[in-house]
Every structure is written in C-alpha cells, then in structure tokens.
Amino acid sequence: MEILLNFTIYLPLLGIAAILLMKNDTAVKWSSLIVTTATFFLSLPLLFNFNVDASATPQYLTEGAAIFAGMDVKYLVGLDGLSLLLFMLTTLMGPIVILSSWNSVSKSLKGYYSMLLLLQTASLGVFAALDLVVFYVFFELSLIPMYFLIGIWGGSDKIRATIKFFIYTLVGSLIMLVALLYLGYHAGAAMGGVDFTADWRFISSPEYTIGLVEQTWLFLAFALAFCIKVPLFPFHTWLPYAHTEAPTAGSVVLAAIMLKMGTYGLIRVVLPAFPNAFMEFAPYMAILAVIGIIYGALVAMVQKDVKKLVAYSSVSHMGFVVLGIFALNDIAMQGAIIQMINHGLATGALFLIVGMIYDRRHTRMISDYGGIAKVVPVFAVMFMIATLASIGLPGLNGFIGEFLILNGSFSSELYANKTFAILGATGVILAAVYMLWMFQRVLFGPITNEENEKLTDLNMREIGLLIPLVLFMVWIGIRPIDFTQYSEGWVETYITSSEEKSVAVLDQADMNELPNWTAKIYSVEEHQMESQFFVNKTD
C-alpha cells in the first residue's frame, strides 16, 4: 500500500512526461484522461483498506532517509483521518477537470494538460505530506500551474488576476517559510541529536511544546499564510478575480481543492503545534469568519456575473469552515472537515455548470439568460441540485456540514457567547437568497433573448462528469456517517491532545521570564493559581 500511495501521487507527473512526447492533440487529451482516471482508481484501495479505528495514526507511511546531514528533513508521506477524504476528492476531480476542458481549450494543449496534471500531483502531495518541509514544497508547487493556467488560458483581464494572485500567495509563502525555519530549528533542539526537524509526528506530539511568546508569533505567521489561501476576510480580494478569469478547469480545481489547503493547514499544522495561541486567538478568528460569511453573501447577492457570484459564495462558505475549526470541539471540527468536502463537490459542480453554459453563449451575465429551463431541462436539473446543495438543503451534502458547524459553535467554550453561531446562521439564510434568486433569473421567466432559444442541452460527456458529483452530494446528505467516520477518531484524539498540551505549556510557563503582554493574553498567573489550588485541595 505504501508503494501504491506514492504511485498515486506521482502518476500524473509521469503522465506529463508522456504527453510532452506526443504530437497529436487528441492523443494528449486522451492520455491526460487515462492518467487521471487511473489515478482515481489507484486511490480506491487506499480508501477501502483504511483502518477507521486507527484514523489518528498515519497509514501507508513512507519514510525516507534524511536529505541533509544533521537535519531531520526527509520524504515522509502517509494518510490519516484528516487527509484521506481530501486526498480522495483530489483524485476524483482529476478526470472531471480533464473532461471539462475537452472542447473549450484549443491552444497549447500540451502545456495546458501538463499544468493540470502537475497541479494534481502537487495537491495530492500537500494532503499526504507529513514532513512540513515536504508539505511546504508541494504547497508552493501547486501555485505554479495555477499561475500559468490563469495567466495563459484565462480571460480578458487575466494579467491583473494573475498579478494579484501572485502577490498575495508570495507574501503568504514567504511568511510561512520564515516561520517554518524557526519552528524546525526549535523542534530540532527539543528533539535532540539534530539541528532541525520538520517531522509533523514529533511537532504535533505531547512531547514537543513551544513557549507562549514563540507560539504567538508562529501562530500569526502560519495563520496568515493559510488564511490567504482559504481565503478568509479580509485576505479574500484575489479570489473573485482569479475565479472569474481562470478557465473552467482552473476555477474547479481552485474551489474544490486549492482553497482547502488553507483550512487543512490550520488543522494539520496550527492546532497541534500552537494550541495555546490557537485557543486564545479563536474568538478573533471567529469574528473574521463571521464577517466573511456575511460579507461574502451580501456581495454575492449584487453580482451580475454568475461566475463571480459563485466565487463570492466561496468566501462565505469557507468562512463557515474556519468558524467550525476554531470552535475547537468534536462536533464543529467534524463539520468543518466534511464541509471542506461538501464545498468542493457543490461549488466545483457550479463552476462546471457555469462553464458549460458559457461555452454555448459566451456570456456569464445573469441578465443575458432567463427562461432557459424550457430549452435545456437536463442542465436545469443539474443546476438545481448543485444550487440546493450549496445552500444546505436537508437531504443534500451542504446541510450536514453547516448543521454540525453551527451546532458546535453554539456550544463552543472558546467563543464567549452564542453570537458567533447566531450571526453565522444568517449566512445560511443569505445563501438561499442569492443562490435561489440567481437560479430563478437564469432558468425561469420568459425567454427575452432569441439566442437562448437555440441552446443545446447537456451532452453525454457533460452529464457524465456531473453525475459523480451529484451522487456524492446525495450520498453525503443521506448517509453522512459513511464519510465522517474516517475523521472522527482523528478529531477526538488531536483536540484532546492539543488541550492537554496547552495546559502543560501554561503549567511550565515562568512568570518572571514572560513579557507582560504574553502573560496577560494567556492569563498565565490565573491558570497557575487555579492549578495550585486544585493541587492543594487534592493533598
């Protein structure tokens, strides 16, 4: 299985080598489809053989030798309850994005499909990496193909979108690199025997703790880098431009896979490494999440471009995920993890659907449509299912994620009151408003443009790439336990471990060595007095 995991990660990379040797565009397309389809089927045994009872322990582990002398930096990959479903979602979306580009992209096909395959390998590597340097390499590698997908195959304003995407991601990447270097040397000194270690297993373990001052700055650095990726308000402004100008396949991968790298990083790296800072800053992160939920929904409501509307809906929906993560209880965290999958399926489907209608009419303006449900009934049904899943209709996948997040946020001990959950719930109502209003204006009413009467319904290729997404939307909505079971043990283990780790750090803190602002933020004196009281009471 270890060999299978690595082969699954790098098969798309091998596919690039093959298609670069081809001279026929048709062969390039078919080869890309075969490679991504094979990648998906190769990943299925990893799912079927996964030990749910040991989901907190990395499985299918591959551990290489140290790359540098004196430094514990090594190739280390595996899957656990946090990464498994995101890994599977990435392999599922591979053949779908290839099929979505079948007739819509005609220039430089070798380069285009090479970028899609490179992006898949990079994304799979992010979710499988268990060494933080390897994680960082894959994280950065994913930016390169997306940069070219937008910059070369994007829309009319692609240069502006590419520059904005590049600047934001560059800033986040540099900040994370500096923080990673400091963390690695600090962890290496704590481990002993090496100068530097980026082994996530050690950094996340109870054996490794880091002081409150360092936690604060490292938390802010890593959180900033990941929040840009999410993107969390107010770091979201690059996303609507990137989505609007990217080709359909680029928008689908960006929404379904790449945004999840940010929320995944918050759970994978920030929670177990900096638990005290995670807990203390949770209310502030929740404020940004709630603002993002409401702001994204309100801005989506006034959009005239349907693709930009879906882009702003992502800002709102990813705000829910962040709200669930920082509630730091089992219910909300489970909701955040499954909501990452739900958003990938529903919003990915919406971008595919927008791309299909754009290929026919070459316009994304809502006002250019109306009444087309009569002309394209199959398209209308697919659009309806994806829309209802996006707004969280019970029985479809979006409901369970939002329900768990709001439920967990309402009972969170880290949120001072119920306000965050109540305000977050308004996002559900607003989502119904902007999504259903958009749906009504596009599909119903009279046909006012004669071009719409000439529209052709979805063909078998288009139906075929939407069917898997629709099936999973329904399956998760009806039987969420089939999916949440994979992360349940992981969530319980690491939330408990992080809470215990945070208590240990506070117990060990020396008031005489801490700056006043640190002692005040973390209430060190109060905690130590309470701990001493319970010790004396026990004695």
Description of the molecule:
The chain has 539 residues and is mainly alpha-helical. The protein folds into three domains: 1-270, no CATH class; 281-506, no CATH class; 509-538. Helix content is 73%, strand content 4%. It contains 22 helices and three strands. Strands 1-2-3 form a three-stranded mixed beta sheet. A hairpin with a 2-residue loop joins β1 (59-68) and β2. α3 packs parallel to α15 (330-361), α13 (282-301) runs antiparallel to α14 (306-327) and α14 runs antiparallel to α15. Residues 532-539 have low confidence and may be disordered.
| Whole-angstrom Rg | 23 Å
Q: Please count the helical segments.
A: 22
Distance between the termini: 52 Å
Helix percentage = over 70%
Average pLDDT value?
Answer: 89
**Are there runs of 5+ residues with pLDDT below 50, and where?**
532-539
Order the strands across the largest sheet as they lie in space.
Answer: 1-2-3
Characterize the biggest β-sheet: 3 strands, mixed
Structural class: mainly alpha
Number of strands: 3
Order of helices and strands: HHEEHHHHHEHHHHHHHHHHHHHHH
Strand residue content: under 5%
Task: Note the quaternary state here.
Answer: single chain
Overall geometry: globular
Count of spatially separate domains: 3
Short characterization:
This is Fe-S-binding domain-containing protein. The chain has 539 residues and is mainly α. The chain has helices at 2-19, 25-48, 84-100, 109-128, 132-141, 143-153, 158-191, 200-203, 212-229, 238-245, 248-273, 275-280, 282-301, 306-327, 330-361, 377-391, 397-410, 419-443, 460-478, 481-508, 516-521, 524-538; strands at 59-68, 71-79, 196-197.
